[in-house]
Specification:
Blueprint: E1 2-4, E2 7-9, H1 12-20, H2 22-33, H3 53-73, E3 78-80, H4 88-98, E4 102-110, E5 113-127, E6 130-139, H5 147-164, E7 170-174, E8 180-184, H6 189-204, H7 224-234, H8 245-253, H9 259-264, H10 275-291, E9 299-301, E10 324-331, E11 338-347, E12 353-359, H11 363-383, E13 389-391, H12 395-407, H13 411-419, E14 423-425, H14 426-433, E15 434-436, H15 443-446, H16 461-474, H17 484-514, H18 525-528, H19 533-555, H20 560-563, H21 567-579, H22 582-599, H23 602-606, E16 611-617, E17 623-625, E18 628-634, E19 648-651, E20 658-665, E21 670-675, H24 677-682, E22 691-696, H25 703-719, H26 724-730, H27 752-761, E23 767-771, H28 778-791, E24 796-799, H29 803-816, E25 820-826, E26 839-844, H30 850-853, E27 859-862, H31 864-867, E28 878-881, H32 889-895, E29 902-906, H33 927-931, E30 943-945, E31 948-949, H34 954-964, E32 970-971, E33 980-981, E34 996-1001, H35 1012-1025, E35 1029-1031, E36 1037-1040, E37 1046-1049, H36 1053-1062, E38 1068-1070, H37 1072-1075, E39 1080-1086, H38 1098-1102, H39 1105-1112, E40 1115-1123, H40 1135-1150, ...
Parallel strand pairs: 3-4, 6-7, 10-13, 13-14, 23-29, 23-30, 24-27, 24-28, 25-26, 25-27, 28-29, 31-32, 34-40, 34-41, 37-38, 37-39, 39-40
Antiparallel strand pairs: 1-2, 4-5, 5-6, 7-8, 9-15, 10-11, 11-12, 16-18, 16-22, 17-18, 18-21, 19-20, 19-22, 20-21, 33-35, 35-36
Helix pairs in contact: 1-2, 1-5, 6-40, 13-22, 16-17, 19-21, 19-25, 21-25, 25-32, 27-28, 28-29, 35-36
Length: 1155
């Protein structure tokens, strides 16, 4: 940022800084007026590390020179401009007009922005310059693309468009290791434009006496020290450890805006906040105030009444000579992360505290470090069976789970360590057992209780990341002993491990002083039942699967060059081997998450979607529910939970005791839990506890699926072959269709629905993929194709994860067949949408001999458990897998033995696969996503894209098509006639709107899962809409809009309940999942969160493309999105987050703004 000729000139770097921190941008602007202002040390900047700045600057020049030399060596016509030349902008324009191939150090401007792009590269495509245009390349020393890189490239592309009249379709980053990363500009450009508009407004309103408040959670870069100083001086209530933005909002409403006011508060509670949470915050504020200026902070060991049973110091096991303290150094900005240093401290044979490390500089190194660490730990545990591994915060165990799953190695060893309680999180001990007068409970803060300040050159985890990035760019050796930068990181990690060990000693001393005994976890019931006949059989089968997988993987050549002789065989072999453990791998996190939730506090469970926290018994006595007992409880209905009637749950206090939620009343906050006396006795209880928390817990038996995969893999091991349909699926081959000519599945002039009927009938032992966007009629088209097969005498199956979806497609088949159809629906709950009731449909239980029914019917509907049975092998001509974007590849392969042909129907842009575990390679993907190789839409040669929507008005379709379907989705003729007409009762901002996409801005702050402000806005909108007349696709009157014609959608159940209180009783309100497959003339979407950072499940949940797509695309005429303006320009930590936010920004730009 600079003044030039009396005008403010802004650079792409300034825009990147604004993305990270509004406060930092204000300081940079202030420094223009006050040159004495100087930024301090930047924890995010490698150049701020001693002796590194000049090295990196030189390395950056060398990297640019290498890229330049490579272009010249390729024979490209290159023009090089001076970085600071007065005429460089004019020379850039001259070179572009001359059509030079590569322009190095190109000067671009689009006032008030100006900057120097590393490279402009000529590419084909008409522009104002001729039959060519330019795209931007940037050379970055980093090994991964960062949000700041992308926003700068977008800014350069915007300036480039001003010159050539066309925006480039792609940009490129040349990374420090030579990799070239191409980025589609459309995936980021709407976010860039929103951020650019906000920055310009910010600078226009800039005042020297009005600095923005530094966000405590933001990265303020070079101005971090100044931000910290101002934060401390502000005494803001969010400086109190554990105080969230939502809590700060509630405190402010009660007149408490500073930490001092909170410390002095005398009230027992405030409105909207649990009194326990308020008391905790008040005490925390007092401790922090009283600790100011002390060498060591004040603390309090919590009383037994303040601690949930088994928490706090009761989690701390007795000392063992084999105890280990463990700490990881990882780069969170690396794609999928990189855990580059694994360090431990332990007592050696002489009793001295020793340190050991393992380094990992790439994926292979990570695998080696994981295996070496776990093997070392197993050997040590064999010597010291009572050892524990202590770490601070759950990061270490989360990494171990992720890497073991991704690499498919040491999974059982890790599972045994986790189930046996070997890993102990000292952060959990501290947060449940102590109050400390520190503003954060990080290790660096807590260690002030037992040691002095650190003096090392690397002083924080983020500085470790920066130092490691600097090492990568420096060219120093990989050996820490010979690399000063790696040695600094190693010293920091060793210091962390030693500090963790000292914390352990300090905590044990407090535990002894207070007389708190260790409360070990109950033994795992699954392990306790290992001697049962079923468990013995399962163990034997699993041992066989593991041995089979190991043999298959061991045969695969390690290098691509060695695989080149028969690449298809090795691809199939690797996937089959990896899928053998898919179901066991998916089951592990169910247990891990149960134990993790059990270790949380009541307040933390309150924030978890799979928990129902703070239940308290009512005065009602236990009562009989058939052969079980019912217990009635009250709970806070404001919490967001997916637990509902019929849910199977474990008790947090007794994780191996499961109950059923027999009744749940969200309005009144009353729940009835059902449990057997046998289950109570097994847990050592006479009755359920007076106070408890529920954790959703359900394990589904998967033996049938596992056996099918084992049989298939065993056959492959013997023959090196699989059926043609499995081979085509795993190798992503185009469908084989008899009589097919040309690459495209669809013939010229043929409708997609007609092509589906023809292609399915002619499918030749192969796989056909069908993608059906919203309103494209995939269910109707599938039913037509299925009925055509049935009329031809074929045997057909319909499979899906959802019984309701199976039944829905079967009903569509009956409708296509005149209302009746002889068929069998396997399993599902009678009397619900899971079981069809049309004439000819027979419902049979899941254990029935399904194969015998094929002698008299030709259509069977069931889940993967049905079609994986050995008796159905080869009995079907075709298996339709509906909602195939939700069905795992492993399940489809397990089912594939039942049919000669597979049709995968779904839309990966609406429904995604629910998965818990990390799986090796691509074995964890959904069937449709795998088959398409991650493509957004189906290529014509791979299958059929149903490109016509019969639902969406053209203005809504334009957004949905561009944001989610690469502009391939088109409205059917007549959709434009679906509009709202004004009535005599119409008034307000929407009176003149007939159709389209509308954003309704509702400013609010501090909201996370619900917003009263948005609920009030929705109520006003609904009042304006009800009574308006609307027309159908033929333009004919369709009546007045009533409550049944409006869907109100929210991302969280808490907002659903808020809306239910705000709207009339008959209003249709729910989450996206409830309305999947439905439609209405009008949809109102309430986004709830004041800003994405406040969303409990993050940007990834709030802006998930599937949810956003489904929510908006339910609307036939009008879609109203109600939300806070701050949703458009959050701080994005990753490039993937930028993609998510970009779709929201595109929506806001596309939408009509409504007051």
């Amino acid at each position: 940022m600079q003044h030039r000729d009396g005008r403010l000139v802004v650079s792409p770097t300034d825009l990147a800084e604004f993305l990270r921190s509004r406060f930092a941008c204000w300081m940079t602007r202030a420094a223009l007026e006050r040159p004495e202002l100087r930024p301090g040390r930047d924890a995010e900047d490698p150049e701020s590390l001693p002796d590194v700045g000049e090295i990196l600057k030189q390395r950056g020049f060398e990297h640019e020179a290498r890229v330049l030399a490579k272009l010249r060596d390729a024979g490209r016509d290159v023009v090089e401009l001076a970085v600071h030349g007065d005429d460089s902008h004019a020379r850039t324009l001259e070179a572009m007009r001359a059509g030079r191939e590569v322009i190095f150090q190109a000067h671009l401007a689009r006032p008030p922005f100006a900057g120097v792009a590393d490279f402009l590269v000529r590419v084909p495509g008409a522009s104002e310059l001729g039959d060519f245009h330019y795209e931007v390349w940037d050379a970055k020393l980093a090994r991964h693309v960062r949000p700041t890189h992308v926003i700068q490239l977008c800014c350069y592309a915007d300036m480039l468009e001003a010159v050539q009249g066309v925006r480039p379709g792609e940009v490129q980053v040349v990374l420090g290791d030579g990799r070239e990363k191409r980025l589609r500009l459309a995936e980021f450009f709407y976010f860039h434009r929103a951020l650019r508009r906000e920055l310009l407004a910010f600078l226009e309103a800039w005042r020297a006496d009005a600095p923005p408040f530094p966000d405590p959670a933001a990265d303020h870069g070079a101005w971090q020290e100044e931000a910290d100083r101002r934060l401390a001086a502000s005494d803001h209530v969010m400086l109190v450890a554990g105080c969230t933005a939502a809590q700060a909002k509630k405190l402010a409403k009660a007149g408490i805006e500073t930490a001092s006011q909170l410390a002095d508060a005398t009230a027992a509670r405030i409105s909207g906040m649990d009194e326990r949470i308020f008391a905790k915050l008040c005490e925390q504020a007092r401790l922090q105030r009283d600790s100011a200026g002390l060498a060591s902070p004040r603390f309090r060991v919590l009383d037994a009444d303040d601690v949930e049973e088994g928490k706090g110091f009761a989690m701390l096991p007795p000392a063992s000579a084999g105890d280990v303290c463990f700490d990881l150094e990882g780069d969170p900005l690396e794609v999928d992360g990189l855990e580059y240093l694994w360090g431990v401290t332990y007592r050696d044979d002489a009793g001295a505290l020793a340190y050991r490390d393992w380094w990992a500089h790439d994926r292979a190194g990570e695998r080696s470090a994981l295996e070496s660490f776990l093997d070392w730990l197993a050997e040590r545990r064999a010597r010291f069976p009572d050892l524990h591994v202590f770490h601070y915060a759950p990061y270490e165990t989360a990494v171990l789970k992720r890497l073991a799953g991704r690499e498919g190695t040491r999974e059982d060893l890790l599972d045994d360590l986790l189930r046996s309680g070997v890993f102990v999180d000292l952060f959990s001990v501290v947060r449940h057992g102590l109050r400390v007068g520190e503003p954060r409970y990080s290790l660096k803060n807590v260690e002030r209780l037992y040691r002095g300040a650190r003096t090392g050159e690397v002083a924080s985890g983020m500085e470790s990341v920066v130092a490691y990035d600097a090492w990568r760019q420096s060219g120093e050796p990989r050996d820490a002993a010979a690399s000063p930068l790696l040695r600094r990181i190693r010293d920091y990690n060793e210091e962390d491990c030693r500090s963790t060990s000292e914390l352990l000693d300090w905590l044990r001393a407090r535990q002894h002083e207070c007389g708190i005994a260790f409360r070990p976890k109950r033994p795992d019931e699954e392990q306790a039942e290992e001697k049962s006949e079923r468990a013995i059989q399962r163990a034997a089968e699993r041992a066989e699967r593991q041995a089979l997988a190991a043999r298959l993987l061991a045969e695969i050549p390690p290098s691509d060059a060695e695989r080149a002789g028969d690449p298809e065989r090795w691809t199939v072999q690797e996937l089959l081997a990896q899928m053998l453990e898919y179901h066991h791998r998916e089951a592990r996190p169910v247990w891990w998450e149960l134990f993790a939730r059990a270790e949380q506090s009541v307040e933390e469970r309150y924030e978890q979607i799979d928990c129902l926290a703070g239940l308290v018994r009512t005065e009602r006595a236990p009562f009989a529910i058939k052969k079980s007992l019912g217990f009635e409880y009250r709970y806070d209905p404001a919490q967001d939970t997916k637990i509902g009637e019929g849910s199977e749950c474990a008790l947090a206090q007794h994780p191996f005791l499961t109950v059923e939620v027999y009744a749940l009343e969200p309005d009144t906050g009353v729940a009835v839990l059902k449990v057997t006396e046998k289950a109570l006795a097994k847990a050592g209880l006479a009755a359920l506890p007076d106070a408890l928390c529920l954790i959703e817990f359900k394990l589904v038996p998967t033996e049938t699926l596992e056996r099918s995969l084992t049989d298939l893999a065993r056959t492959f091991e013997a023959t090196h072959d699989v059926s043609p349909v499995v081979r085509d699926l795993l190798l992503r081959r185009p469908p084989r269709i008899r009589g097919q000519s040309g690459k495209s599945v669809r013939h010229e002039g043929e409708s997609a629905a007609d092509a589906l009927v023809r292609a399915v009938a002619a499918l030749d032992s192969s796989v056909l993929c069908v993608q059906g966007p919203p309103g494209s009629g995939k269910t109707t088209s599938s039913a037509r194709a299925i009925c055509a097969l049935l009329r031809a005498g074929k045997k057909v199956g319909i499979a899906c994860n959802s019984h309701a979806a199976i039944a829905n497609l079967m009903r569509a088949c009956a409708d296509e067949n005149g209302g009746a159809l002889d068929c069998v629906k396997v399993d599902g709950k009678p009397g619900t949408p899971e079981v069809p009731t049309f004439s000819g449909c027979e419902h049979v239980p899941g254990r029935a001999d399904v194969a015998s029914y094929l002698d008299r019917v030709s259509l069977i509907g069931g889940t993967a458990w049905c079609f994986s049975r050995p008796e159905l092998r080869g009995r079907l001509d075709c298996l339709f897998v509906d909602e195939a974007s939700q069905v795992s590849l492993a399940n489809v392969v397990a089912m594939s033995r039942a049919a000669r042909n597979l049709v995968l129907v779904g839309d990966q842009m609406q429904l995604s696969q629910p998965t818990r575990a990390v799986h090796p390679g691509e074995s964890g993907r959904s069937a449709l996503d795998y088959a398409l190789g991650g493509a957004t839409t189906i290529p014509d040669e791979r299958g059929l894209f149903l490109e016509t929507t019969h639902r969406l008005h053209p203005t809504i379709c334009e957004y949905v098509s561009g944001a989610f379907y690469e502009d391939r989705l088109q409205p059917a003729p007549g959709n434009e006639r679906r509009v709202l007409r004004a009535s005599q009762r119409s008034d307000g901002a929407l009176a003149a709107l007939e159709a389209g996409l509308v954003f309704v801005p509702v400013p609010h702050t501090g909201n996370t899962q619900c917003s009263d402000e948005e609920a009030a806005a929705v109520r006003a909108l609904v009042a304006q809409l009800v009574g308006r007349r609307h027309t159908d696709r033929e333009g004919k009157p369709a009546g007045e809009i009533g409550l049944d014609d409006i869907l109100v959608v929210a991302p969280y159940n808490a907002q659903v309940r808020t809306l239910e209180h705000a709207l009339p009783p008959r209003a249709r309100i729910g989450t996206v999942d409830r309305f999947q497959g439905q439609q209405a003339p009008v949809v109102v979407v309430s986004m709830c969160a004041s800003e994405p950072a406040l969303s409990p499940r993050g940007i990834g949940f709030l802006f998930h493309p599937n949810r956003l797509n489904v929510a908006v695309s339910r609307a036939q005429c009008l879609a109203l999105v109600v939300g806070a303006p701050a949703l458009a320009t959050p701080s994005c930590r990753s490039v993937d987050e930028m993609r998510l936010v970009n779709r929201m920004c595109r929506l806001l730009e596309h939408a009509t703004a409504a007051a």
